[in-house]
Amino acid sequence: MAEILLHLTSVSSQLHTLNNTSDERYDSEIRDLVAYIKQFNKNLDSQDLLDNLSPSQHTLSYLFILNLHIETLQNKTKNIVPDEIKPGNDLWAKAVYFLRSFDPIQVRYAGHEWRQLIELIGQAAEAVSKPFLAVQVIREALLRLDSSGVLTSVHITFLRLSLLSRSYSHALPILEKQIFRFPTSSGQAYSKHIDRPLCSEFTLGDTFISDASGFSAKLTYRDHTRYFLYGAMIYMALKNWNKALHWLSIVISSPVNDSVSKIMVEAYKKWVLASLLGHGKLVAPPKIISSHVLKVYQTLSKPYASLADAFERRDFQRLRAEIDVGQSVWRADNNEGLVSQLFRAYNTFLVLKLGRTFSALTTTDVAQRMFTPLASSANVEEFVASLVMSESLGATLLHLHGHGSATMLRFSAPTKFVFNRENFMRKRLIEEGRALGFITNDVDQCNSELKLGNENLQLLSRNQRWPDTSGNGGGDIVQADGGLDIDEDIMGDAT
Amino acid sequence: MDLPPLSDEQLALVVASAQSPANLYSTLSDYETEACLLSTKDGKQAELLSLYYSTFFFSHLLTDQIREARLSTKRMPQNLLQSDPSLQNCLNLLRAVWQRKYEQVYTILRELPWPEPLKPIVQSYDAHFQEKTLKELSRAYEAIRPAAAATYLGLDPASAQEGDPATMQKFIACGWTWDEKTGLLHPKPIIEDSQNDAQLYNELSEVMALVGNRRT
């Protein structure tokens, strides 16, 4: 046992840092270790080994032995989720500890085992109806791995569990990381030119998360749309309508072959509701959606179209009738919660619209124009005051002297409006700036991978030009040098 | 970092030692996983859970995360939520805060029976809610009747309407002016700390620098 332990601890992230081992050598050591563990006898005392290994130092050994231990238990109990792995038990604690402290470099060599453990943690938490426990752990594991914009099946599992456990804001650190790649296909031509070992700190997620690495199960078209639909649902639960609309737009504008998928139709229905709740009107769908797809959406979501029409025409009686008639539809589509928010949104947008026409109104006037159940002056004042105090409405209230209980609603002075708008624009700029920074880094990385960086281009240019200039006969070296200089300057200008 | 196990004493220590409501919220969030593992069937653990979730609930309110407070009530054990008087009070308070029923908020905070260990945080929230409402009122109203202002702030509306000097003094202390002729109070907007504004400017500069770098 001591000999095995010695072998298992031979690869350690601490030793790698201390000894400053080259990436190539570390890579070879890790691969040897993986080969050694894979030929293990399954009957060895894995519990003892686990107690003597550190998840952060001996990540690979710990992960393989832990999975071996779990597999033995699964075979013994004939249960995929044995009691020992359920929350509160010893194996659960070990798995959680591992997922919170693993070495993200070593784990690149065991993507399949890493995912297997995460999926099991998810199943175990669901088995005891406490998905929240898995959400925390999976989030930390995903952030620790840093998938660099690559979508994996673990992302989808994570969002599903976040929705199940209603831990929406816990999902934000993952949702806010831009996802724009699928796991690399091993057949991609450019990947052959990347000769960095997996353990190099410059090897990013787009390289080590490939379709063969095991970090993700095979992704389908459905998985892709599911990820964005789940994300949109989380943003809707957090009432971040703009983000929700953006995520839904990705689903509804996904490429289609012959017919649209059910998920896309579901997303379109939610798109209609999120539009009304966030903007008070049906937002124009992305232009990228072809007209025949849009027609299919509209045909399959007629009750939603009627609802939107009543909302946009400010016809409260019809809106109420549409909502009542469609109860079974909203329930079947799991959109009851969103539909129930329409009444408040309706009143809010009605008051906002009044602000575009009038500079001031009494609350009695507002009540007369609302035609809704709120329409008593006192209720209207309470409602309008809540909008003003929560800063949803840029206005001020003024109790009037000598007019009983009259209250004047004065819509905001233009200066305040401009200030709010400036603030909003500034926030938008910063958000876009962050996205731009992210894309810039990625472009730089692509340039480097494809050898399209400035230095490479200059070198290439120099190499290409050299034969030409030497071909002039070589008699006028000064002239040739001068020509090269000019060329370099031109390249400098262009970059 | 490993947290000390959750217990009544540890909870009291966390509440007492928290430097700010945000700090309290952050520490209690870290305990949510451990709380999730406790059983509501065990009487002692159920008591601890009731105290933990109630304190956690108030830490949301103290950091103005009303929506998150609502979601936390969906995540806590539903049988405990339905049967525990303290959590039921939290639920009623949440409803009143959500619907901006000011009178109800103060009644729930001041008149409902809260467990002894929870009383300091309940009082903190009373003060926080009053202060927050005062800022909102100052911004929202150009002129307000004293009775209405008193209702918003959990003071006695009748004495405010009669112009009770002690009540009026509280408004005047906030920089409001009292026009005896019209019987109206004129709130003075309370200017918020501009720290966030400065941060926004810094971030904006970073964006501009990024754009500038790419042009060269």
Structural overview:
The complex is a heterodimer of chains A (495) and B (216). Chain A is mostly helical. Chain A has four domains: 2-145, no CATH class; 224-340; 355-412; 430-494, no CATH class. Chain A contains 25 helices and three strands. Chain A has helices at residues 2-8, 13-19, 23-38, 46-51, 59-77, 90-101, 111-127, 131-145, 153-164, 172-175, 205-208, 221-237, 241-252, 262-279, 291-300, 302-312, 316-325, 327-332, 336-340, 342-357, 363-370, 377-389, 414-449, 454-470, 477-494, and strands at residues 360-362, 395-399, 407-411. In chain A, strands 1-3-2 form a three-stranded antiparallel β-sheet. In chain A, a hairpin with a 7-residue loop joins strand 2 (395-399) and strand 3 (407-411). The radius of gyration of chain A is 30 Å and the shape is elongated. Chain B is mainly α. Chain B has two domains: 8-124; 129-211, Arc Repressor Mutant, subunit A, CATH 1.10.10. In chain B, strands 2-3 form a two-stranded antiparallel ribbon. In chain B, helix 2 runs antiparallel to helix 4, helix 4 packs antiparallel against helix 5 and helix 4 runs parallel beside helix 9 (119-140). The longest helix of chain B has 22 residues, at 119-140. Chain B is flat. The mean pLDDT of chain B is 90. Classes of the chains: A mainly alpha (495), B mainly alpha (216).
In brief:
The complex is a heterodimer of chains A (495) and B (216). With 495 residues, chain A is an all-alpha fold.
